């Protein structure tokens, strides 16, 4: 039997919301796939698209960016900038024929442990279907 | 109302003389323009204060040694010039400068901007063996006829932004059949009007021949679509590996890019040098490693950093020692990013760069 593909997902989680949401999911004993490697950032706007590319080119099968809901950013407007940057990154990736489906931007608040689990599980399933990131094994 | 200055002489001569008089009358203290430095077609941008030095000035020479936007930024980054300076630049150079000013990398005050409708420039290598000098008469013939020149930078062949935005004075070149006999300086701003006061020439009523410009636009647009669609399609990782696999990692393309303004580029930093352990883990994972590593990473990264403001000047491609079709990639991907926000880089100084502004309700479809 072939071994089942277990994705590796890098999650950039905002300290003020999604990271706490992840915590809550954990303490509530919700099932979170072990494929997620969380990286805590102070705001979704901290994430230079280059960081996302770094994860992708190094072989992450999926990259999740999770921040506060629009209107709830701890710094008022960071997530609005993050959304525009994400749109731009997606465009770059799409126009070169790479897989932008490996990238996901989502909003999860500190009290949404349930939602956090859902977002990660859903993304994980999607990546499972997509299979391994082809960049992982290529000589780049 | 008169909106143009007519000088009855060959266009380049007229402008050269105009610039000299500006200096002599002390209307400006300096002139920033292209100047010949040899017989083979080598020219350089220069900041000139003595009118004699303008004898070798070639303001509309079809070469771009460096994107002048980058040079103007170097001159004005730490503050505007203390004295008035007339600068003669091409439309994409002006747009690049405006993008830099938006990033607080330059100052507009005290500059009188003179630009022109632009027929494009030749690759830099044509100025090392005299090819460009041989091409000049064909070049100006094509400009007069409103045709696209052969052998230009690919970026220029496919450029539809050949009319400058925000110039104080625009010189009418494209489709102007009388280039050798007369010259029209179109005055777009108060500053432009001030500058031509008491100057030689006749104030007249004049506008572009809009029909001609429209036809020229259509030709360039067609060329652009061909360039974007018919040139090697870049689709997927394998294509990227093929194209960027030959990149030697010199970063020349970013050094000449007017939009790449950081003095300490993250891609040049020692943080990105691989440590032995990193080499080990990389070869373990991949079964081998391209050396220098990370060329695709560098280009994708640069695309996300500069694409939104890429003015499509083609400088990057022109300096690449291994002929990577950078214009195709940066201009095409750049424009696709710009279209998201209906943004034309350098068009309007008061319009914010899309990445430093937002609307609360937008792009919700990309949220997951
Ligand atoms: S100029 Fe060419 S070889 Fe040098 S870094 Fe840029 S693409 Fe690579
Ligand atoms: S990326 Fe290339 S074409 Fe675009 S502005 Fe920079 S040098 Fe010019
Ligand atoms: S603080 Fe959470 S997205 Fe800005």
What's this, in brief?
Chain A has 140 residues and is an alpha/beta fold. Chain A contains four helices and four strands.
Overview of the molecule:
The complex is a heterodimer of chains A (140) and B (368). The radius of gyration of chain A is 15 Å and the shape is globular. Chain A contains 4 helices and 4 strands. Chain A has 140 residues and is of the alpha/beta class. The mean pLDDT of chain A is 96. Chain A has a single domain, classed as Rossmann fold (3-Layer(aba) Sandwich), CATH 3.40.50. The relative contact order of chain A is 0.24. Chain B contains 13 helices and 8 strands. The radius of gyration of chain B is 22 Å and the shape is globular. In chain B, a hairpin with a 6-residue loop joins strand 2 (30-36) and strand 3. Chain B folds into 2 domains: 4-228, no CATH class; 234-366, no CATH class. Chain B has an 8-stranded mixed sheet, with helices on one face. The A-B interface holds A 48-50, 53-54, 57, 59, 70-71, 77, 80-81, 83-92, 95-98, 104-107, 119, 122-123, 134-140 and B 234-237, 239-241, 266, 285-290, 293-297, 300-301, 303-305, 307-308, 329, 332-333, 336-337, 340-341, 354-356, 358-360, 362-363, 366-368. The complex binds iron/sulfur cluster (SF4) (2 copies) and FE2/S2 (inorganic) cluster. FE2/S2 (inorganic) cluster (FES) is lined by residues 14, 16-17, 43-45, 67-68, 73-75, 78-79 of chain A.
Percent helix of chain A = 25-40%
End-to-end CA span of chain A: 31 Å
Largest interface: A-B, 40 and 44 residues
> Which percent bin holds the helix content of chain B?
25-40%
What count of helical segments of chain B does DSSP give?
A: 13
Mean pLDDT of chain B: 95
Radius of gyration of chain A: 15 Å
Output the strand order for the largest sheet of chain A.
2-1-3-4
CATH topology (level 3) name of chain A: Rossmann fold
Tell me the β content of chain A: 15-25%
Strand content of chain B: 5-15%
User: What is the 3D shape of chain B?
Assistant: globular
| Ligands bound, unique | iron/sulfur cluster, FE2/S2 (inorganic) cluster
The number of domains of chain B = 2
Structural class of chain B: alpha/beta
Number of DSSP strand runs of chain A: 4
């Amino acid at each position: 039997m072939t071994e089942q593909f277990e994705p590796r997902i890098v999650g950039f989680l905002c300290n003020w919301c999604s990271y706490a949401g992840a915590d809550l999911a954990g303490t509530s004993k919700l099932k979170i796939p072990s494929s997620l490697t969380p990286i805590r950032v102070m705001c979704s706007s901290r994430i230079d698209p280059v960081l996302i590319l770094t994860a992708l080119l190094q072989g992450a099968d999926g990259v999740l960016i999770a921040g506060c809901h629009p209107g709830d950013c701890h710094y008022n407007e960071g997530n609005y900038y993050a959304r525009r940057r994400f749109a731009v990154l997606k465009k770059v990736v799409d126009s070169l024929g790479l897989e932008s489906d490996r990238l996901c931007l989502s909003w999860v608040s500190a009290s949404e442990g349930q939602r956090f689990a859902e977002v990660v599980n859903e993304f994980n399933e999607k990546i499972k279907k997509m299979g391994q990131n082809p960049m992982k094994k290529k000589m780049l | 109302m008169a909106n143009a200055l007519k000088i009855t002489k060959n266009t380049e001569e007229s402008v050269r003389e105009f610039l000299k008089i500006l200096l002599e009358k002390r209307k400006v203290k300096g002139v920033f323009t292209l100047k010949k430095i040899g017989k083979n077609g080598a020219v350089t941008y220069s900041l000139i204060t003595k009118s004699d030095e303008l004898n070798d000035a070639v303001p509309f020479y079809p070469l771009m040694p460096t994107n002048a936007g980058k040079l103007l930024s170097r001159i004005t980054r730490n503050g505007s010039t203390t004295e008035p300076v007339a600068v003669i630049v091409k439309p994409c150079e002006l747009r690049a400068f405006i993008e830099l000013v938006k990033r607080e990398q330059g100052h507009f005050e005290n500059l009188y901007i003179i630009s022109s409708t632009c027929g494009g420039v030749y690759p830099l290598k044509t100025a090392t063996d005299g090819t460009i000098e041989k091409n000049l008469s064909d070049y100006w013939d094509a400009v007069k006829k409103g045709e696209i020149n052969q052998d230009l930078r690919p970026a220029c062949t496919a450029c539809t932004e050949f009319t400058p935005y925000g110039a104080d004075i625009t010189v009418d070149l494209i489709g102007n059949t009388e280039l050798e006999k007369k010259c029209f300086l179109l005055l777009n701003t108060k500053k432009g009007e001030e500058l031509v006061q008491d100057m030689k020439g006749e104030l007249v009523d004049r506008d572009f021949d809009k029909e001609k410009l429209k036809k020229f636009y259509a030709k360039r647009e067609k060329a652009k679509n061909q360039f974007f669609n018919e040139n090697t399609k870049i689709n997927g990782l394998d294509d990227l590996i093929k194209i960027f696999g030959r990149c030697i990692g010199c970063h020349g393309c970013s050094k000449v890019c007017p939009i790449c303004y950081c003095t300490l580029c993250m891609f040049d930093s020692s943080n990105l040098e691989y440590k032995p352990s990193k080499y080990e883990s990389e070869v373990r994972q991949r079964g081998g490693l391209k050396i220098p590593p990370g060329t695709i990473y560098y280009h994708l990264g640069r695309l996300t950093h500069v694409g939104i403001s890429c003015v499509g000047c083609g400088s990057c491609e022109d300096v690449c020692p291994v002929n990577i079709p950078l214009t195709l990639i940066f201009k095409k991907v750049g424009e696709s990013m710009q279209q998201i926000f209906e943004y034309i880089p350098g068009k309007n100084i008061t319009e914010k760069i899309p990445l430093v502004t937002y609307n609360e309700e937008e792009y919700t479809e990309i949220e997951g």
